[in-house]
Design goal:
two-stranded antiparallel sheet; Peptide MFS transporter; peptide transmembrane transporter activity; Growth Hormone, Chain: A; single chain; Dipep/tripep_permease; cell membrane
């Protein structure tokens, strides 16, 4: 393919998909293999190999994931204003490979160092490749949705394969090999991008000095589900030495992340300060606007606060549910037809169900919209909570399908993930798009930051909730752990159900606050 393609030539492609989409598809697929493979190993590895208490492992999982989301926002800003998407993606990939390689060399001695490299690397890589996909299309191109559907399929295929393969290899063969596999596939991802980036024309190049950059952001409440793109305009600040400052700064922050994740008390202090300060700043900014703008910002705050609750419950999958799967599930799926690692199922079932049902849900929403009966955004968020409650009631019900040793049915556990996925697919329109639509232009960057901060808080809360469930039964038998964890899941189901009902009840009020925004 010619190296000097213009943006117009790329966007005027023939057929259903641009060739560049497939290059980005494979880069993202292997990166998500690495990310979800690593994520799925964290809590289990900390408990079984580093001999941490369940409480500490849950807290450190929550802290790690919180910083991943915080750095996703920071990495996106640096890419927009200084590095450009290509340099940011490359630098993030290098850091992720370094982190995985450190863990492969000695995961016991250098665990937190390797994880810290991965946290910062993900922040630079993740937000930028999806933005590049958006730039392959004109804003009014009807083929955009089909392209993003393919791209999100790549995310879920990577998450499915990595989530199952890495934890299974680690448990059955070698943790060095498991972390090494993450490094290998991340290297494949980066090599794929390096050898195909010349076909991207001007897409992803560093912005010019003081140039207006229209960032087409596509990050939602979950990266596995397609969301409506959001356009955010920022002013670039690109100078050559700024690049080196970003590289040096991102390396310098790694020891700080390492300390804060290893000693979660520091994370507690950080999270207890940054949230209230950000909220006070937003209230100050709201005072500069009229009542119409304030009402929209209040509606945005409703979405932000409820997203923290949703994430806190949903993200038990990487924390308490990982330990529950390891100790309290059998390995027989489909009534004994398949023998599967329960932790692999915990890590990958959601991605499998998203692949199967995402298209079906999109058809349902389109059909309902044609009949003018599609639920509004607030109702969909409420429905997501209702499904989430249903999922955790099913997790609770595993206690009724357990044997005398406290080992429960893997099939029932997988059904819970099916119900959870339905809730996730109700959230597809809830993303940065709704934040930007509800925000004045000058506050769009602030609201984008608050959305990612809310995601970070959700991960942090997930760690706290998981730690709370583990606290009472550190030395319990499998039967006692089954009872204590499932009782905790029942409580989370009740919280989720209450949140969903509240959202549905207040939906008319929130819709009035949103005014003309759909």
């Amino acid at each position: 393919m010619p190296e000097n393609l213009s943006l117009g030539e790329i966007q005027n492609f023939k057929g259903k998909y641009p060739k560049q989409l497939w290059y980005l598809f494979f880069s993202e697929m292997w990166e998500r293999f690495c990310f979800y493979g690593m994520r799925g190993m964290l809590t289990y590895f900390m408990v079984t190999q580093l001999f941490m208490k369940d409480v500490d492992a849950n807290l450190q999982y929550g802290a790690t994931q919180a910083f991943v989301y915080a750095f996703t926002f920071i990495g996106g800003l640096f890419a927009d204003k200084i590095l450009g998407f290509r340099k940011s993606l490359f630098w993030g990939g290098i850091l992720m490979i370094a982190g995985s390689a450190i863990l492969a060399y000695d995961p016991h001695q250098f665990f937190f160092l390797g994880i810290s490299f991965t946290v910062v690397g993900t922040g630079f890589f993740k937000p930028n490749i999806s933005t590049m996909v958006g730039k392959l299309y004109k804003s009014d191109d009807a083929r955009r949705d089909a392209g993003f559907s393919v791209f999100y399929a790549g995310i879920n295929i990577g998450a499915l394969l990595g989530g199952y393969a890495c934890i299974t290899i680690g448990k059955q063969y070698s943790w060095h090999l498991a972390f090494g596999l993450a490094a290998i596939v991340m290297t494949i991802s980066l090599i794929t991008f390096l050898f195909t980036q010349k076909s991207m024309g001007p897409i992803g190049l560093p912005p010019g000095q003081n140039e207006d950059v229209n960032d087409i952001a596509v990050s939602g409440i979950d990266d596995k589900v397609q969301t409506e793109p959001a356009v955010i305009t920022v002013k670039s600040a690109n100078r050559k030495w700024y690049d080196y400052a970003v590289y040096a700064g991102s390396l310098a922050i790694i020891p700080v992340i390492m300390i804060m994740v290893a000693k979660t008390q520091y994370t507690d202090w950080f999270m207890s300060v940054i949230g209230p300060v950000t909220l006070l700043y937003l209230i100050y900014e709201m005072s500069k606007y009229g009542w119409a703008e304030r009402k929209k910002l209040l509606a945005a705050l409703v979405f932000i606060l409820f997203s923290i609750v949703f994430w806190g419950i949903y993200e038990q999958s990487g924390g308490s549910l990982a330990l529950f799967a390891a100790r309290n599930l059998d390995n027989q799926a489909l009534g004994g037809l398949l023998t599967l690692d329960p932790n692999g199922v915990n890590n990958s079932a959601n991605s499998l169900f998203v692949i199967i049902f995402a298209f079906i849900f999109s058809i349902i929403w389109i059909a309902m919209a044609k009949k003018k009966i599609e639920p509004n955004t607030v109702i969909k968020f409420g429905l997501a909570f209702i499904f989430l409650a249903g999922a955790f009631f099913v997790f609770y019900s595993t206690r009724f399908f357990a044997n005398a040793e406290g080992i429960a049915s893997l099939d029932v556990f997988a059904i819970a993930y099916l119900v959870m996925t339905f809730g996730e697919l109700c959230l597809s329109p809830i993303g940065l798009s709704i934040m930007t639509k509800l925000s004045p232009v000058k506050l769009q960057g602030v609201m984008m930051g608050m959305w990612f901060l809310a995601s970070a808080y959700g991960q942090y809360v997930a760690g706290l909730l998981g730690a709370g469930m583990a606290e009472a039964g550190e030395h319990d038998t499998p039967v006692q752990k089954l009872i204590s964890y499932t009782e905790g899941y029942k409580q989370l189901a009740i919280y989720s159900l209450i949140a969903g009902v509240i959202l549905i009840v207040i939906s008319p009020i929130v819709r009035k606050l949103m005014q003309e925004v759909k």
